[in-house]
Design goal:
The protein is of the alpha/beta class. The chain contains ten helices and 15 strands. The chain has helices at residues 17-26, 41-53, 69-74, 105-113, 152-166, 172-179, 195-208, 225-235, 259-265, 274-278, and strands at residues 2-3, 5-10, 34-37, 59-63, 77-81, 90-95, 116-125, 137-140, 181-182, 189-190, 192-193, 213-217, 223-224, 244-245, 254-257. The protein has a seven-stranded mixed β-sheet, with helices on both faces. Helix 2 (41-53) links the parallel strand 3 and strand 4 (59-63).
Length: 282
Amino acid sequence: MAASLQASASSTIGARNEAVEAMASSGIVGANDLLIVGPGVLGRLVAEKWREEHPGSQIFGETVTTDHHDELITMGIKPFLKGAKTDQKFPYVIFCAPPSKTPDYPGDVRMASLSWNGEGSFLFTSSSAPYDCNDNGPCDEDTPIVPIGRSPRTDVLLKAEKLVLDFGDRGAHFYWLNKGTVDARPDHILNLIHYEDAASLSVTILKKKLRGRIFLGCDNHPLSRQEIMDLVDKSGKFNKKFEGFTGTSDPLGKKLNNTKTRKELGWEPKYPSFAHFLGVAE
């Protein structure tokens, strides 16, 4: 399961680097070709689903290193390094690179937007962090956002989202199991979405060719940290035993609801809850 996903659709504005440059010079880009900036777990699932719906399309992946290029080529993704010399533009672009690996996240989003030709969709996968709710209360697409200047983390995301509007199984439970004891409060509410569902939602948004919109991705079953680990224990699928949460004063979360997004897009998740994902839903 992944964390909740916020996605912004905008209207602004071997297959390695050599392959992309050759493609750029030939000008051969199909109407359904896709560029994935940051083809990690989510990006690869998007590629898989995109190919199912557009069998003849080319899929490119922009990376910061060549470490996984062989894997991407095997998957049918044509990788190239960030900064590779190409003037080619793509009808569909999805930016799903994390902010942790760059000193200028908004700048990277801006550069990625220059690779979009404006015909299909440019999709930026963000986070639910910018929603101004941290008391385990309800939160949906219309919840106010955190003001710029309050938090460096949300500032980075909000600036990236503004750029887009002007022209998202590696869940936390694995980490907590490995830690055994975690210094965080057990009643903090989290919102989840399976990576496959984040990918299918992303593809759905891309296909709609929407402009200047923000959508919210989650499973509509918010859980506390403790509830998540109780379900993990109940599933019996893990050998390790979680000892517990020890925090008492860290912030609370928010309860996301994306009914509006689902209704508008005609989208429903494959995994309706974390309990369904683990096979312990009643």
